[in-house]
Structures are given as C-alpha cells and as structure tokens.
Amino acid sequence: MKKVLALIAATAMCLATLTACGGNDAASSASANGSAATSAEDANGAYTLAKDGVLTMATNAYFPPYEYYEGEKIVGIDAEIAGAVAEKLGLELKIEDMEFDSIITAVQTGKADIGFAGMTVTEERLKNIDFSESYAQGVQVVIVKEDSDIATLDDLKDKQIGVQLSTTGDIYAKDDYGQDHVVEYNKGNDAVMALVQGKVDAVIIDNEPAKSYVDANEGLKILDTKYVTEDYAACIAKENTGLTKAVNEALAELEKDGTLKGILDKYITAQ
C-alpha cells in the first residue's frame, strides 16, 4: 500500500512539474503569437506581423502606375517594391486592396503590416502612424478638359475640384480653395470620370496616375503648372518600430543595389 501511495505521489509530482513547464511554454507561445499577430525577429530586432511569415500590404489598387490590376493580380511600383522588401526580410508578400482612407486604420489595428499606396508623409498623418524612409517622389498636378478656361492654379478659385478621398490632393485643395469647392471620391478614376461627365471642373491628383488617366480619356490634359511636390513612403504602426527599422534597411539595400531605380524606371521613365 505504501508503495502504491508513493507511486501516486511521485506521479502527481511529475504531472505538476510537466504542467508548470507546459504552462510556461504556452504562455510564451501566446505572447509570441498573440490573438491577431505573430512576432518575427532578424538582425533588426523583433517586430509583429498580421500573419506568420507573411508581409501584409494594404493599398488602393486604382492608382497606376503605383498600384493597379493586371487581370486579377495587383501590380505596379508599390507592389514590386513591397515584394522586394518582403524578399529581403524572408517573407511572403500578400496584398490587400481597400479604400485609400482605410489603409492607415488597417495598419494601426494590425490587419495589415504596412501600407504602400503612393502615400505622402504629412504632419497630420504622423500623429497616427509612422513612415519608412521615402522611396519615390510624387508631384500633384491638375487635370482639366482640353477646352477648359482653367490655365493656372489661380483659375481654380470658385471652381469645383475633384479629388481622391484622404489623399494629399484632397488635403491641399481644401486648404487652398475651401471645402465647399472640393468634391471627394473613393477612387482617383471616379474623380476623373466626374470631370469627363462635367460634374467637376478639374481634378487634382498625382502626376503619374494623371498621365494614365489622360491617355485613357480623350479630351483631357494636364496643366503645365505643378501643384505640389512630395515624397512617397510606406506607413507602419507606431509601436511596430522593429518593422520600420527592418523596412528602412531593406529599402537602403534596394537603393544601393539599383533595384529601386530599376523598378521606378520600368514604370515611369519609359513612359
């Protein structure tokens, strides 16, 4: 009987020990994986990802040549740069298409890891999100009809201006011409279609997409005057500092080895 009791006691002690060890492992696993994110680590330090082994990119895929659909696939400058960054980090790239004004929220909440969307760094955005180093320069321009009486930026006063919601074109146009004269659309293409249909008098949008829209729609032109020059960067959650560092180092390597220039030249210089 004593042997049986001793055996039971020993077994209980072993189980308690295993349970304690298992509990620590489980806690470590839960801490590492979390309910909505996983952690990754390389020479740059730890960072969180929405999905293990995957860099999830948020974008609005109606902004050629930075992001657009080719069949069912999203391609363009941002898609290729994000893919090159993911490769440097040893990750698979997954692209999520959404409305432009949802991108920062998706990154903040961990639904996406990074936003590549021809996005400009502004003081207002920096209150809510961090940005990588700049990887390209953009210029805001004005599209009008070929027979328009709008020839300069001053001529936009008291006109109806179409913009893509939450873009810098939207922000600057409201500041310069007043909110009552700015009409917001979810997609840049919708703003251009409004111009074609005579619903607005002009559209303020980035230069490269503007070229694509003018080429695709007869009777439109881009004013010679540049509206605003700005730098594009990828947005990353403020608390995800390890990912910001990792992305910046990847971008620096891509610039040094000529990959960034090659991607930009492929879509822009050749146009």
What keywords describe this structure?
single chain; 271 residues; alpha/beta; D-Maltodextrin-Binding Protein, domain 2; 2 domains; six-stranded mixed beta sheet; three-stranded parallel beta sheet; 9 helices; 16 strands; 41% helix; disordered N terminus
| Text of the CATH class of the largest domain | Alpha Beta
**Apparent shape:** elongated
- Which CATH-level-2 architecture of the largest domain? 3-Layer(aba) Sandwich
Could you name the CATH topology of the largest domain?
Answer: D-Maltodextrin-Binding Protein, domain 2
Query: Hey, roughly how much beta strand do the residues contain?
Result: 25-35%
Q: Can you write the helix and strand succession as a string? A: HEEEEEEHEHEHEEEHEHEHEEEHH
Q: Ends: how far apart?
A: 90 Å
Tell me the radius of gyration.
Answer: 25 Å
Integer tally of domains: 2
| Count of helical regions | 9
Instruction: State the total count of DSSP E strands.
Output: 16
Averaged pLDDT, please? 86
Percent helix range: 40-55%
By CATH, the superfamily of the largest domain comes out as Periplasmic binding protein-like II
Global structural class: alpha/beta
Largest sheet: 6 strands, mixed
Report on this structure:
- It is a single chain.
- The chain is α/β, with parallel strands linked by helices and 271 residues long.
- The chain folds into two domains: 38-135 and 233-269, 3-Layer(aba) Sandwich (D-Maltodextrin-Binding Protein, domain 2), CATH 3.40.190; 139-229, Periplasmic binding protein-like II (D-Maltodextrin-Binding Protein, domain 2).
- It has helices at residues 2-33, 77-88, 103-108, 123-126, 168-177, 188-196, 207-216, 241-256, 259-269; strands at residues 38-42, 45-49, 54-59, 62-63, 67-70, 73-75, 92-97, 114-115, 130-131, 136-145, 161-164, 182-185, 202-206, 220-222, 228-232, 235-236.
- Strands 10, 11, 12, 13, 14 and 15 form a six-stranded mixed sheet that branches.
- Strand 11, helix 5 and strand 12 form a beta-alpha-beta unit.
- The longest helix is centred in the first third of the chain and has 32 residues, at 2-33.
- Mean pLDDT is 86; it is low at 1-36.
